[in-house]
Amino acid sequence: MRVLVQRVSAARVVVGDEVVGRIEPNPQGLVALVGITHTDTDAVARTLADKLWRLRVLEGERAAADLDAPILVVSQFTLYADTAKGRRPSWSSAAPGAVAEPLVNAFADALRAFGATVATGRFGAHMRVELVNDGPVTLLLEA
Fold first, then answer.
1. What are phi and psi of 46, to 5 degrees?
2. What was the pLDDT predicted at 116?
C-alpha cells in the first residue's frame, strides 16, 4: 500500500458536476491518495491509517489526531505505475478494483475508528481532486 499525503488548507473531489467529498480544514487538513497492490491486507490498511493519523506534519509538529484535522481519502491506482521501460506506464502492480476498493474503504474506516473526520472520493470514477497544498508538504507512506 502506498499513501501519498499532502497537507492542505482546502480540498475537494468533484465527479462530473457533483462534489462527492470535501474537507474543511481548520486551519489544516490532509489529503491521502491511496494506492493498493496485490499483497495488501486489512492489517496493512489499519497500520498505515494509524501512521497517518499520528504523523506529525501539521502546524507546530502536531498530528491530525492532536488537532482533529480532517482527512480526504482518494483512491489512486497510478501510485503503482511502472515507468521503467518505454513511455507507456504499466499498471500490473496495482491491485484490480475488486481487491483495491475494499482496502481503500478499510483505510478510511480505520481512520474513522481512530476518531478522524473523513471524506472520500468515488472509487473508479474520473475525479477532479482540487486542493491547496500547504507548505508545500507531500510525503509518501508505504507498507
1. -65, -40
2. 97
What is the pLDDT averaged over residues 80-97?
96
- Mean pLDDT across the chain: 97
Among 56, 41, 49, smallest CA distance to 113 is for 49
CA distance 26 to 41: 32
> Distance between CA atoms of 32 and 28, rounded to whole angstroms?
13
Neighbours of 106 (CB within 10 A): 19
Task: Give Dmax over CA atoms of the chain in angstroms.
Answer: 45
Per the DSSP assignment, residues forming a β-bridge with 54 are none
Q: Which three cell numbers stand for residue 40?
A: 495488501
pLDDT at position 132: 96
Nearest CA to 56 out of 44, 47, 66 is that of 66
The residues carrying an active-site annotation are 76-78
Strands 128-142 and 2-15 turn out to be: antiparallel
Which grid cell sits at 91? 499498471
Sign of CA dihedral 100, 101, 102, 104: positive
Q: Does position 61 have pLDDT exceeding 90, yes or no?
A: yes
